[in-house]
Amino acid sequence: MKNMHMKYNLLFLLVFVASLFSACDKEDDPDAPLPGLGGETWVKGPLDDWLNQNYVVPYNIEVKYRFDRYEVALNRVLVPPREDKVIPVMETIRKTWIEPYEQEAGPDFIKKLSPKQFVLIGSAEYNTNGTITLGTAEGGRKVVLYVVNDFDPKLESEVKQMLHTIHHEFAHILQQTVMYPEEFKRITTDYTASWNDFSLADARSRGYITEYARSSPDEDFVEMVSIMLTEGKTGYDAIVNSAPASAQPLLRQKEQYVVRYFKEAWNLDLYSLQARSEAAIDAL
After folding, report:
1. DSSP string, 58-96
2. What are the residues whose beta carbons fall under 8 Å from the beta carbon of 261, sequence distance 6 or more?
3. What CATH number is given to the structural domain containing 253?
4. Domain check: are 121 and 221 in the same one?
5. Structure confidence by residue, pLDDT tens digits, 36-70
6. Distance in angstroms (rounded) separating the CA atoms of residues 246 and 241
7. Are both 82 and 133 inside the same structural domain?
8. Same-domain pairing of 190 and 133
9. Is the torsion defined by CA of 49, 54, 57, 61 positive or negative?
10. Quick one: 172 and 186 in the same domain?
């Protein structure tokens, strides 16, 4: 009888502990929504209509501006974008990135290859090595744009900074779809993970268009594309011509591989696209 009593007590204890853990799981789940705080539902407004008409309908591109912590790194302090910045940012992207490609490559090029989601973040992402992330691309599907709250379409420097990020990330999508020539990787070979420890002048003296271009061949390639399209022929030539004489042939050689890649992989004249991009920036 005593043993039976102990068995019942043990059974009761096991059931109690299981119930306790079950209750804790439900109550302490950090991902569980907290009702009554707002934000669970929202009503579409004029901004959502504009994004639908200018991005969803023509390009099947979603633009997320309401903050979603699962779209970005969880270990970073970030802020959502201001709603009054969303249209200026996305309108500038449409005019200076989408339209030049459409004019040069036809309407289906962007529809086929563009990322299907833009995620807008108000602040920059600060990294532990002292660098700042201004944009990221994930597998050709999503582009995250940071520092949206600082954007001013009237400032050429702001427009070019944002376009630098867009062209960089889109060039990644292109080179991940069709790889650039292997010979490009052998033009310069002193790539380094500590690229941020060296100055821009040092990078260009070694034949790299930016400091970040020295981090890897892939980054070198897409930085070349981005600078050529963001700065236009005049600005790009000025950068190359101001580099040390020993570095200029290296930069020109990389330029020719980029031009060759766009022609062979995508049947695009990069110099013509460069001119269209420069004209679009000037038009703002």
Report:
1. HH--EEE-S--GGGS-TTS---PPPHHHHHHHHHHHIII
2. 175, 180, 181, 184
3. 3.40.390.70
4. no
5. 444 556 678 899 999 999 999 999 999 999 877 77
6. 11
7. yes
8. no
9. negative
10. no
